[in-house]
Here is the input.
Amino acid sequence: MIRVPPPMTLDEAIAGRSSVREYTGQRLDDAAIAMLLDAAVRAPTAMHAESWRFVVVQDEARLARLSDRAKLLLDDRARRLHERPGRRGPEVFSKPDFSIFYNAGTLLVICADAGNPFGAADCWLAAENLMLKAHAMRLGTCVIGSAVSALNEPDIKAELGIPASHAAVAPIIVGTPVHEGSPTARRDPEVLARR
Here is the structure.
């Protein structure tokens, strides 16, 4: 008999969500993807534009090609982001067998209408909803910022069906974690002013 985990409260989802970087490789089924995207589009949106669009990538060979392309396009800025203590350094990107998608079977890319000045903000709001829903479903997620440059290359956009008028903003891997993660500590909020 399969035990269904008890539902999570919103506070539990917010406090318990963490970035997962090791997956079983299992792809999400259509029902799970639909639930995640339904949660994403419930996010606030500037002027009710709802300019977000979604791309679902589950083909293993395509994910490998995207990973290889992204590793080639990483610039000095991206490398500096990964040089903080405790982070995977740029040397990991040069390993041929390293995937920036951490073996996840599903990549969900949230795209914005490039002509909408609030499109990117809308995408990040949708991303948060999607990641919280995934956590509540006991799935792991991780934003893969190092894939953005590759996903916005004209030939990659064409391959994935992203119109020239749109830009990939938030690439998120989703899947079954190999290990149950735990949230990282966060600093207390820093209030700059109270007037």
